[in-house]
Amino acid sequence: MLDTRELGRRPGSQHEVTRTVPAPAELGIEVLHVPEGSPVEIDLRLEAVMEGVLVTGTATAALEGECARCLEPIDDDVDVTFQELFVYDDQSHAPADDGLDDEASRLEGDLLDLEPLLRDAVVLVLPFQPLCEDDCPGLCVECGARLADDPDHAHEAAIDPRWAGLASLQQDAPPENDEN
Ligand SMILES: [Zn+2]
Ligand SMILES: [Zn+2]
Predict the structure, then answer these.
(1) 153, 140 contact by CB (below 8 A)
(2) 60: pLDDT confidence band, cut at 50, 70 and 90?
(3) In sequence order, what DSSP letters do the residues of 22-88 get, joined into one string?
(4) Which among 32, 152, 155, 178 could bridge 130 via Cys, Cβ 3.0 to 4.6 Å?
(5) Pairing of β 39-48 and β 14-22
(6) Residues with CB under 5 A from ligand 1 (ion)
C-alpha cells in the first residue's frame, strides 16, 4: 500500500517514490517466481490527474526457478515496467457515467495497492517454459543425464521399450489349437 497524501490532488502535481518492498507470496509462476520476502526495488512516478492518480513505474527483483528441460536451478532477475490509473474512490457519479469501467483500479482513500499491478506485470514477462540457456538440450531420455554437461554422451543401441514389451508377449503366447 502506498500513501498518496504527499502528492495531493491538484491535477498536474507529481511525486517520485523509490522504495524496496518485500516480495509478496506467489509473485510469478510456479516454475519461475520471485522468492517470497526477497527485495523488490520499485521506482514510481505518481501524477495527479482529474480522475485519480496515474502511476508509472519500474520494478526489479530476483527470480528463482528451474529449467523446464533439464531442471537445473535458474538464477535470473526480472525487470518490469507498468502504468496504471488509480481512480479516486469518492467520485460521486456512477462508474457508467465517467467512461471508466468497473475493472478500473481504485484508490482506497489516499492509499493505492500496487500488488495486483506488480503481479500482472511480472507474470506477463515470464516465459511459460523457462530455460537455463536458450538452447538447453534437456535430459537424456534413457538415463536422465543432463546433456548440457555431457553433450557427447551415447548409449548402446537398446531395444525400444515399446517393442521389447511386444516381443515378450509373443514369446509367452500359448500356441494356438493345442487341444487336439
Ligand atoms: Zn536447462
Ligand atoms: Zn543417457
Answers:
(1) yes
(2) very high
(3) EPPTTEEETTEEEPTTSEEEEEEEEEE-SSEEEEEEEEEEEEEEE-TTT--EEEEEEEEEEEEEEEP
(4) 32
(5) antiparallel
(6) 67, 69-70, 72, 132, 136
